[in-house]
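Title: Prediction job returns without error message
Component: structure pipeline
Severity: low
Priority: P3
Assignee: unassigned

Description:
Job completed but the reporter wants confirmation the result is attached to the right record. Sequence as submitted:
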Amino acid sequence: MYDFVVTGNGVCNVTTFYRDIDGDGLGDPNESMMACTAPPGYVADNTDACPLTVSSVSNSGNCGCAPGYYPVITMMSGEDVITGCQICPTGSYCPDGLTGPILCPAGQYSDVMGAASCTLCDAGSFNPAPGATSCTPCPAGQYSDVMGAASCTLCDAGSFNPAPGATSCTPCPPGKYSDVMGAASCTLCDAGSFNPAPGATSCTPCPAGQYSDVMGAASCTLCDAGSFNSLPRCNLPHALPGRPVQRWDGGRNLYPLAMRAVNPALAQPPARLARRASTAM
């Protein structure tokens, strides 16, 4: 649109000029003024669809940078203008080209530059802090069965996990137990006790009449004929479990040490028995 006006210098053509905030030579069609010549910060062009983004910026239809990049902001004519784009660093993401860089949240990571999103930690691994470039395997005694974990879970009592990076824990086998959470290994049942089933948190004393002389027993053994055990565990003070020490009775008979509880005289040496016999006479 042209109008003619008379000035002190003669006649001029009045033209519409458009504001060029970002200085890229393209004018904002929504901000204009009439003048004989272009005022400072104005141009004749009116095709700037992104007046706050210089035309040299990679434009993805959002008047900003491409995803995976974040804008470089410069103050121009009192306005924040996008004058460039910067690639997103590792450990962060730039989702839309207008914001960022944003640190990857706990449970996620980014190990490449220019990421538009972060990656979930695999099951069996975790990441407790924002801005990670990798995830850490769950330590022994712990596990993670989901993706994107910020922490791992302790194995329940009765189970264990011996190696890092587990997605589950294993029940303690028969003959072993675990009475704590987070076990990397199970404990053998003591001699004199047993555990017949997986996943135990304790062992059971062998019942009367049975014994176990090894650690890690899944069952107890019946006492042999001619021997007995009245205690819950076969750990008599002078005999191996199930193998009672025998004593001579002065004749032809040998008796288990346990018989002392029934007849103490049977556990005496022959000389003492002889003395007792002479006294009795």
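Comment from assignee: result matches the submitted record. The chain has four domains: 1-51, 55-137, 155-244, 245-281.
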